[in-house]
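Side project, low priority. Logging it here so it doesn't get lost.
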Amino acid sequence: MTGPSTHSPADLAHGTFSDNPPWLVDPDALAWLDDIDTIRMATSRRVPSLITPPRMPPLRRAITVLRHFGWALAAWFVTGRRRGGSASTADLSRRMREVAETLGPTYIKLGQIISSGEGIFPAEFVAEFTRCRDQVPAESFASVRRVVESDLGATLESTFAEFAREPIAAASIAQVHAATLHDGTKVVVKVQRPTVDELVHKDLQVMAWLSPYLVGRIPVASLANPPALVEVFAHTINEELDFRLEAANMLDVARVFADLEQTHFVVPRPHPELVTRRVLVMERLDGFRFDDVERYDELGVDTHAVVRAGMIGFMEGALIHGIFHGDLHGGNLYILEDGRTALLDFGITGRMTEAKRLAFVRLLIGGMMNNPVDQLGAMRDLGALPADADLEAVANDLGLLDDVIDPLTMTPDQLTEELQRIVRALLGYGARMPKELMLFVKNMVFLDGAIATLAPDLDLFAEITHVATYFVSAHGARLASDVGMDPEQYQFDPGGIRVAFGVDAQTERMTYRELQERREIIQRRLRDRI
């Protein structure tokens, strides 16, 4: 795997960009970046008003939403619910996905977030909503032209020598077109759907009005707190509606990687001038999809190195700088021929305050030292638990202080009862999933799946130990200082890894393939119980 060439472009001082720049990035000379902090603050301040339940929502839209969801839930209640267990959840998932596609961009986007939330949302929901990723109809070329010309203040022909009529990809918020500038530079152009801003805000008002009535009425534990889910969703989608924020995110993530000397990653350069609220022109990077295993073999790219770089780079960004790409999935990562990973689509980016970054640091240290009470304290500071939560009591109620019981030694009845007990305890303590934590967990779940695809025989215990050792050697003193801890007190506890995987201390190694086999056995026992 190679990094930047000897004759590196000057703007690599500002970020981990490609070695062959179509233009150079100078953050001080970007006019669209001048007011970015004001734009970000205004966007954030708008969220509370969007998620405050209105006395009356936009009536026509509310009727449409209620009609579609009402019919779907009624049909499930009459037929699908009777199937019980996983079959019932799968039937509900299908009906909800069909409603999302009917209602349009906002609900499709919510479905896409659910689809990349394996481990957060039920497996049936994740599998079903994955279909939302590739089934979004494209806007007409006439609509695309109108948006581009309106935002850039010039005709399409005066700005681009070529502009593909058919999009490369069409998503819920925007679609992407290949284009060529008049100097021959090949670019990609991200264009927002023309009415999506207004529609999203109406839908958020409807969601905020409806969600309190759904508390306790959706028979899926992960969706037990609809208002909290709406809040996270509002923060996420609201930021995606201004492409100037996305372009700024690209620069910030690229800068973080450069500061960390993580040259395994490449971020496309946003154009110095052609960035507006609804149009984003950026450098075109060529590569192959992250999950295209055959291409790795053809080009001799080390899949293990790619996975390891992904784990370390993502965690470093979050823990050291509090900034990370918030929507990792196969469509947002490309592997270049030199083995580096290109990151795309920065509409969802995790940004933490210093207090939350320090909470993440404590969460990591607590995990590596196998200290569940410290981990719960970090979760509380992230907003996942109430500020007055009794951490010792929570740890006891969740069984975190008990001896590890291998789930494979439990009967289906015992497994089900234990899961129900944990869910009841969490809900009883008012547990919730704040945005930053949800994005972090979602990305970790994606990287978990990446190991399954690219390195199924990787020894997970050894790899986690390697990552922990890397962080101690590279950042130990800084992280310890951040949380007021004496570095000499840090003791990595390998037993904590085994606790996390639910195995006893005698288990010396575990490959991802073996972990998957354990998960399948547990899932089968739960299905049998149901």
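Brief comment: Residues 42-135+196-240 form one domain.
Revisit when time allows.
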